[in-house]
Write a structure and sequence with these properties.
The complex is a heterodimer of chains A (317) and B (74). Chain A has a domain at 36-216 and 227-262: HUPs (Rossmann fold, 3-Layer(aba) Sandwich), CATH 3.40.50. Helices cover 49% and strands 13% of the residues of chain A. Chain A contains 13 helices and 11 strands. Chain A has helices at residues 23-40, 58-69, 84-101, 110-114, 118-125, 129-148, 159-171, 175-180, 203-213, 229-243, 247-258, 265-272, 290-299, and strands spanning 12-14, 19-21, 49-54, 73-80, 105-109, 152-154, 184-185, 193-195, 275-276, 283-284, 314-316. In chain A, α1 (23-40) crosses α9, α7 (159-171) packs across α10 and α7 (159-171) crosses α11. The radius of gyration of chain A is 20 Å and the shape is globular. Chain B is mostly beta strands and 74 residues long. Chain B has a single domain (2-58), classed as Ubiquitin-like (UB roll) (Roll), CATH 3.10.20. Chain B is built from 1 helix and 8 strands. Chain B has one helix at 29-36; strands spanning 2-3, 10-14, 19-23, 27-28, 43-47, 50-52, 57-58, 63-68. In chain B, the strands form 2 sheets. Chain B has a 6-stranded mixed β-sheet, with no helix packed on it. A two-stranded antiparallel sheet of chain B has the order 4-7. Classes of the chains: A alpha/beta (317), B mainly beta (74).
């Protein structure tokens, strides 16, 4: 296979673009796709500060690297989830990435700061671990972004993530979730703007970007996520994609172009019903936000009991 | 296919769980993925430390990693 741009030896075939790329032109292709997403959806304005949600996995590290290469003012936030060796290795990758590039980043450890970890939270709530994990991360990314005065929180959600979530929401007709499944969630009601600059890159392209850029990342699957429904949706979509390249892109971007607006009116009503959590001040539809309730329940399962809800963090140079 | 023990065969490293097997070389990346029942959208192939496309030819003595790219958290 030859590179579509220079006709040199290709290192990757991207069937949905019917194209092959060498290292140099694949990196350019990734930059172009991210820049196009940022521009098309007005994700980040010139001069704005960005907080990247960093997990140590391929998507968040690729995103951090790409945003820097595109010239954005970026700092990272890593949240220690306490998922055993998996979290230890993930944190090491994030730490090494930041140190080698002399980047600004922040670390917040769930157990140190709030007295629980994801496995404990899953046991306490008797829900799937991804539920407590995702909710904790969203709450803390929002909170740190607002406290640090950054304009935008960027997450590493890629095309496969968004297509799989869309697939699940359509299968179960979660119309409230469909209303919010956008690559940009505007700031307001106490939330910072949230953006997903990787929506034009597949998971495979994101991983390939890390390899050709020499970025070491957590390759192993999260043990808490193994066998979850979301992975099943991805496998189903990849089976279709094998036979019909470009289907995932058409599914997701067709939704954004032609269907997303039909679901949005309900979301506006939900946002207007929010007030400040009496404990932490975060926006919530009730008196106490879901995160504070989780801290209370999960903390009760720890030997030391519940801990006060105060945000602390260790800053890294 | 058998567990790795060295020799003039291709070493293939798989993940989740991490394991290593030896197979005969002399086949393309696409054919190897097909034999392992892996979707091309779901893995990348790294040969001797370098990313290679689907038509790359794999030989005995190559060290090949079949790296999954699907992650479950959102």
């Amino acid at each position: 296979m030859k590179c579509r741009v220079c006709r040199g030896p290709a290192v990757i075939d991207v069937r949905r673009h019917n194209a092959n790329f060498c290292v140099e032109h694949f990196i350019e292709q990734c930059e172009r796709q991210v820049a196009k997403a940022i521009e098309a959806f007005d994700m980040i304005a010139p001069g704005e500060r960005v907080l990247v949600a960093v997990s140590g996995g391929k998507d968040s590290l690729a995103l951090w690297d790409l945003l820097i290469r595109l010239g954005y003012d970026v700092e990272g936030l890593y949240i220690g989830l306490g998922i055993g060796e998996y979290s230890d290795v993930s944190g090491d990758h994030a730490r090494r990435f930041a140190a080698e590039r002399d980047l600004t980043w922040h670390v917040l450890d769930l157990r140190e700061e709030y007295g629980y970890d994801v496995p404990t939270a899953a046991a306490a709530t008797r829900r799937v671990p991804c539920s407590a994990c995702g909710m904790s991360k969203r709450h803390l990314f929002d909170r740190v972004a607002l406290e640090r005065g950054v304009d935008v929180v960027a997450t590493g959600h890629n095309l496969d993530d968004e297509a799989a979530v869309l697939f699940g929401n359509v299968l179960h007709w979660h119309t409230d979730y469909l209303a919010r499944q956008l690559p940009v969630l505007p700031a307001g009601h106490g939330f910072p703007r949230k953006v997903k600059p990787l929506v034009r890159l597949s998971e495979r392209e994101s991983a390939a970007y890390c390899i050709v850029r020499g970025i070491d990342y957590q390759v192993e699957e999260c043990p808490m996520a193994a066998g979850n429904r979301h992975l099943g949706y991805k496998e189903a979509l990849n089976t279709i994609e094998e036979r019909s390249p470009g289907t995932k892109h058409d599914f997701y971007f067709g939704f954004l172009d032609r269907a997303a607006a039909l679901f949005r009116s309900g979301a506006t009503i939900d946002a207007e019903g929010l007030s400040a959590c009496v404990r932490c001040g975060a926006p919530t539809p009730g008196e106490v936000c879901a995160f504070c309730r989780l801290v209370e329940r999960a903390g009760g399962h720890e030997p030391g009991g519940a801990v006060p809800v105060t945000l602390g963090r260790r800053e890294q140079p | 296919m058998r567990a790795a023990s060295g020799g003039s065969t291709m070493i293939v490293r798989l993940r989740n769980p991490t394991r290593t097997v030896e197979v005969q070389g002399g086949r393309s990346v696409a054919k190897l993925l097909n034999e392992f029942g892996l979707a091309r959208e779901a893995v990348l192939v790294v040969r001797n430390g370098e990313l290679v496309p689907g038509d790359a030819f794999l030989s005995n003595e190559d060290e090949v990693e079949l790296r999954p790219v699907i992650s479950g958290g959102v």
